[in-house]
């Protein structure tokens, strides 16, 4: 809220804290609640200080887009932003129209954020036309709604504004809301909100100095110095430059009220910075306060010439502007009158008094006109609010009557339905009782038939899977190659290796046939079968690779597992990984067994140093080919997952960056 600080108040040392704020709304960091239209309106609102014409144009475009989409929520927020912008431009008529429109439309929305914006615009309007009780009510409502959606940046600024409205009547509430403004600002991590809140809290500390001690003055000084440091550090992100100027003015004013001797260097350093900001951004109240503080300081020191020069400089600067500020000119001429009186220059006093009378009359006329405008605005706004409340009450009563009528009709209808259903179901109960008994008998017969059918289908599926498993385990290529090797050995009269090869082949065939009919086999049997198979592959491939089977100490070799799960992966490792390796490179196949006791799983890890997955795929001519044995194994493991959810396997490429080639297969085998 804006508190006008006159030079007379500065002179009498009874001034309240110098605050002159324009309400600023940044894009809230609650992206999930902000629409694209609101972002456009918020962007336009952020330009109100640098380019007011572009600011209004962008916001009007956002409003047109909201109307085109027929989105009332976006319309309310656009009207609220436009209202706050018109306050910055001091256009009461447009300010009132936009705020009223936002507030009326918000009654049709159930969105918390939308209602919060409407109450914010209305609260600012009431504050602008000096209707403090209504302003506090609306801003408190807006503050509560924004708090619900954690819009901390908005809460910080609204809480600060509420603290100004409670000053000076209720110091406790001033402190309460200034403190809450600080808490919200630091949660928002927004430099603009942080400075806004710190100025409010600084105002509270300064007001306390009227009955405070030198220690309180030092505490307030430290707080305001920190505020200035933060404002300078984050000045690029602070749009409302007037707040930075106010921080300097507040600090300078505090120095002027401090213990004697006054720190003149610090006082004038802050006033110069405030004056620079006032001239750069054309902030009248900052410039007036800076000149006034300097002039008053020199007047008290008895340097009347310097004081007179400062006041005259202020008048020249004001007259150079394209508009006339009668309030400012009257204030400066009044100060010049007092300086002339102290110098006993009554001729100058008379000249200054003439000009003071002229501008004071103009100021009085402007003030009177503004008071009349504010009174008219309060009256019109009150009428609209009463009308809105009356319409809301009428709508509520109408809705209640409708609901009462619907309730009575509903009760009667339910009674009729209940009576009809009772009669209908009583008649049908006896008729259906016999039908239910017959149906239960029929269902029992169907269940028996279904169970028989499921048993036959499961058996057929199992036999089919076993046949496919046998075909996959006894790969025709492997059989033909094995028999060819035996024949070759016999023709070369290598009788002993041929007999050994034939024995291993016969043993392997017998093991596969026997194990394929079993539900479970021991780990010892599985390892024995794998050894036979691998050694046959070694003989077939002229010992081009070596192998090792390792069991961890925690693994017992008599645990029971599903049969023939591992061999298909050994086959893939040999055929597609080790066999294509260059003859001069020795292959290595490693099989490791470990156990997860808590999950009842046996983990089999198969490593080879073959050519790897990528190179193996390139050698295949049929891109769509998939190993039959691997597919069947996958189906078997999938069937086991119902009782053993961890059953399954994964195939990984070894890390080529470390100079490793080949694959790693990890199989989770359930322990049965």
From TrEMBL:
Residue intervals passing through the bilayer: 403-424
Record GO terms (molecular function): protein histidine kinase activity
EC number(s) per entry: 2.7.13.3
UniProt superkingdom: Bacteria
Gene3D superfamilies for the chain: Histidine kinase-like ATPase, C-terminal domain, Tetratricopeptide repeat domain
SUPFAM superfamilies, per database record: ATPase domain of HSP90 chaperone/DNA topoisomerase II/histidine kinase (SSF55874)
Keyword terms: Kinase, Membrane, Transferase, Transmembrane, Transmembrane helix
Domain Signal transduction histidine kinase internal region positions: 466-545
Pfam families referenced in this protein's UniProt entry, alphabetically: His_kinase
Keyword RNA-binding: no
Keyword Transmembrane: yes
PANTHER family cross-referenced by the UniProt entry: SENSOR HISTIDINE KINASE YPDA
UniProt name for this protein: Sensor histidine kinase
